[in-house]
Design a protein that fits this description.
The complex is a heterodimer of chains A (about 475) and B (about 230). Helix content of chain A is about 50%, strand content about 20%. Chain A has about 475 residues and is α+β, with helices and mostly antiparallel strands. Chain A has 3 domains: about 150 residues, Beta-Lactamase; about 60 residues, Helix Hairpins, CATH 1.10.287; about 150 residues, Heat Shock Protein 90, CATH 3.30.565. Chain A has a 5-stranded antiparallel β-sheet with strand order 4-3-7-6-5, covered by helices on one side. In chain A, helix 1 packs antiparallel against helix 2, helix 5 runs antiparallel to helix 6 and helix 6 runs parallel beside helix 13. Chain A is rod-shaped. The two termini of chain A are about 80 Å apart. Chain B folds into 2 domains: about 120 residues, Response regulator (Rossmann fold, 3-Layer(aba) Sandwich); about 100 residues, Winged helix-like DNA-binding domain superfamily/Winged helix DNA-binding domain (Arc Repressor Mutant, subunit A, Orthogonal Bundle). Chain B has a 5-stranded parallel β-sheet with strand order 2-1-3-4-5, with helices on both faces. In chain B, helix 6 packs across helix 8. Chain B starts with a strand and ends in a 7-residue tail after the last strand. The chains are: A alpha+beta (about 475), B alpha/beta (about 230).
Chain lengths: ~475, ~230
């Protein structure tokens, strides 16, 4: 695959490069050190041989006070070159062809490196005083002896090269072993990644179950990924199941409504009927059809509300006065309230603009209000209260109905959920009203909840973010619809 | 014939009850699973139409309880659920037939009638005993090729008797199977209908078809001497 990056390869190469750099540095250091050590040893042997040569300079047996070189007992290397002269330039002894050096002023031994023929030599130039007959009264005759002694230094470099070669070989072997071990270790260390991948590969739409392998959970670096995967998948699975349930419920609901419309029309056409029967049948069929239409309408509304808004700012642009909307909702529900002789009172302690468009806000308020009216006994009272702070607006709707049971509470906002299924259809709900309310509230960044009022009946509380307004002094108003 | 409809959807149930009654069946309606179970356990129904999604007690439970208690009434399931699997489960649980919502009312009636027929051991919609023919689809009766004009109740009594030839059918049984709870019924009503039926069936020179067995009931004679 082009452009892919292998962690294994990258790690191994990094380690090998580092190891190689340190090996090179080590070899350089070893070369310097080895050369130094070898030269020191070389020089020491040069000095020792030169000293013994110097020691071999002795008094001659003749009358003059000359000196000579007695080579007996002196061992010089085969390829050594040396020359021993006295102060008058008389050659006492030599071997090879040592070059002539400018004599140093001091007596300290000096080293020189010179090519002789094709070989490189290292020479020691040594000056020493020889006194012939030191016991004589004149103190003897002094002779200044100059000695040049050298041997080829190829040996030194050979030793250094050998040492470097040994280290280089060792390094190469070490690099090879490291590469192999690293590759194996890294691959082994990464095996939880492969296991995690294998497990993740098994996920498909029909089987969302995912359990991260233990190896992945035991690996500190992988644990966050494994846990994140598990959590994300569990969430997806939940939402997938919710969608599936919704689809099933919606299908059931639609099929039932269609079945009603269809059976009404088929019943009508089963045999010849009177005009009155046909008219009545058509009216009933139209009612049935209206209910089907309203179910579809509500499903579409819910789908629209649950669609994420592409731009959050867009929805903030739309806002409406909660008070106006509540008044509209009360007005709209007037016929039902009158039918059931229910008094609707409202109490405004604040005014607020909420970030919902007026259509949705009206839907929210009238759904809550209709729900309260439907669950209230005839002649009861429904109380609406609105209060607010700078940031939030709160709407409370209380009814005097039978309240909600504890097991229903968790599901009351679920689509198509009905507290008591046997009653539902008769009261005309599709089971979507409260889901739509919840979707509207959540889209606006608010919340909705339903609890039982201690005094009896249900209490719906809606909390919405509000856009602050100038405080308006509105006296509490009470309207009674009879 | 008397049918029990267990369906929680009020409007759908109203339509189905009306259609079933118009096709000559007596119908009782239960709006939830528990009431349905109680109705069904009386054992007076010739067929049961059962919705699956019911409040209080699911349709499947109603069916399982019925079969466990050895009620062999044919059951037709109404379902809005998708999937072959649930159909297989239903049939294995003792259902005799099923229909998916939204269904065709005509098909529902045909299937119910077919279920009733089969449960009574008849395989065609036209019942014939000697020279008497009863068409359960057209709801017509002919004797010796001649159409007889029967009232709905007379037709239903005859249909019931023809489904059980040679068996003695008591007045009580007729009452149970021909009338639903909405009807005011007394046994002397049956007597009156039977006597009318007898009169209409009696063509000149033909043998009487319906026998009366004192304190026991009525019987349709099957083997008439060839006239």
């Amino acid at each position: 695959m082009t452009g892919s990056v292998s962690i294994t390869r990258r790690l191994v190469v990094t380690v090998l490069v580092l190891e190689l750099i340190s090996a090179v540095a080590l070899i350089v250091a070893i070369t310097v050190h080895e050369r130094h050590v070898q030269l020191k040893a070389f020089d020491a042997s040069l000095v020792a041989t030169a000293e013994s040569l110097m020691g071999a300079v002795q008094d001659t047996e003749d009358e003059g006070d000359n000196v000579m070189l007695d080579m007996r007992g002196v061992q010089v290397a085969q390829d050594a070159a040396f020359r021993v002269e006295d102060e008058r330039g008389r050659l006492l002894g030599s071997a090879g062809e040592p070059p002539r050096f400018e004599m140093p002023s001091s007596e300290a031994p000096t080293f020189r490196e010179v090519d002789v023929g094709s070989r490189r030599y290292r020479f020691l130039v040594l000056q020493a005083l020889r006194i012939v007959d030191p016991g004589k009264p004149n103190g003897g005759i002094r002779h200044r002896i100059t000695l040049v002694y050298g041997i080829p230094d190829g040996h030194v470099w050979h030793e250094v090269f050998e040492a470097v070669r040994f280290f280089a070989m060792a390094t190469a072997i070490l690099l090879g072993i490291t590469a192999a071990v690293m590759a194996w270790l890294v691959r082994k260390g990464l095996s939880p990644v492969y296991e995690l991948a294998r497990e993740a590969e098994l996920i498909n739409p029909s089987d969302w179950h995912f359990k991260a392998p233990i190896s992945a959970k035991k690996t500190a670096e992988l644990r966050p990924l494994a846990i994140a995967l598990e959590v994300a998948l569990a969430r997806l699975q939940r939402s997938f199941e919710q969608q599936k349930r919704f689809t099933n419920d919606a299908a059931h609901e639609l099929k039932t409504d269609v079945a009603i419309v269809k059976s009404s029309l088929q019943l009508l056409s089963m045999r010849q009927r009177t005009v009155e029967e046909y008219i009545r049948g058509l009216v009933v069929s139209l009612d049935d059809f209206t209910r089907l239409e309203s179910t579809v309408q509500k499903m579409l509304t819910l789908a629209r509300l649950e669609q994420p808004t592409p731009d959050d700012r867009e929805k903030l642009l739309e806002s409406c006065s909660l008070r106006d909307v509540i008044e509209d909702a009360v007005h709209q529900s007037k016929p039902l309230a009158e039918l059931k002789a229910i008094a609707v009172s409202f109490d405004f302690n604040a005014e607020a603009r909420v970030p919902i468009n007026s259509h949705d806000a009206l839907l929210l308020c009238s759904n809550i209000l209709l729900n309260a009216l439907q669950h209230s006994p005839n002649g009861a009272t429904v109380r609406i209260a609105m209060e607010g702070t700078q940031e939030t607006a709160r709407l409370k709707v209380e009814d005097q109905g039978e309240g909600i049971s504890e097991e229903d509470r968790a599901y009351i906002f679920e689509p198509f959920y009905r507290g008591d299924p046997s009653r539902s259809r008769k009261s005309g709900g599709t089971g979507l009203g409260l889901s739509i309310c919840k979707a509207i509230c959540e889209k606006a960044g608010g919340s909705i909840e339903m609890v039982n009022n201690p005094a009896g009946g249900a209490l719906v509380t809606v909390n919405l973010p509000a856009e602050p307004l100038e405080p308006v002094s509105i006296s509490s108003a009470s309207v009674k619809v009879q | 014939m008397r049918v029990l409809l267990i369906e929680d959807e009020q409007r759908l149930a109203e339509n189905m009850v009306a259609a079933l009654r118009e096709s000559g069946l007596a119908v009782d309606h239960a709006a939830d699973g528990e009431a349905g179970s109680h109705f069904a356990e009386q054992g007076v129904y010739d067929a049961i139409v059962l919705d699956l999604m019911l409040p209080r007690k699911s349709g499947l439970r109603v069916l399982q309880d019925l079969r466990r208690d050895k009620f062999h009434t044919p059951v037709l399931i109404l379902t809005a659920q998708e999937g072959k699997e649930s159909v297989v489960n239903l049939l294995n649980a003792g259902a005799d037939d099923y229909l998916g919502k939204p269904f065709d009312l005509g098909e529902l009636l045909a299937r119910i009638k077919a279920l009733i027929r089969r449960a009574k051991g008849v395989s065609t919609p036209v019942l014939a005993i000697s020279d008497l023919e009863l068409d359960t689809v057209q709801q017509t009766v002919r004797r010796r090729g001649q159409f007889l004009d029967l009232s709905p109740t007379e037709y239903r009594i005859l249909e019931y008797l023809m489904h059980r030839p040679r068996a003695v059918v008591s007045q009580q049984e007729l009452l149970e199977h021909l009338y639903d709870f909405d009807w005011e019924h007394h046994s002397n009503v049956i007597e009156a209908h039977i006597s009318n039926l007898r009169r209409k069936l009696n063509l000149a020179g033909a043998e009487p078809l319906i026998e009366t067995l004192r304190h026991r009931g009525y019987r349709l004679r099957k083997d008439l001497p060839a006239s």
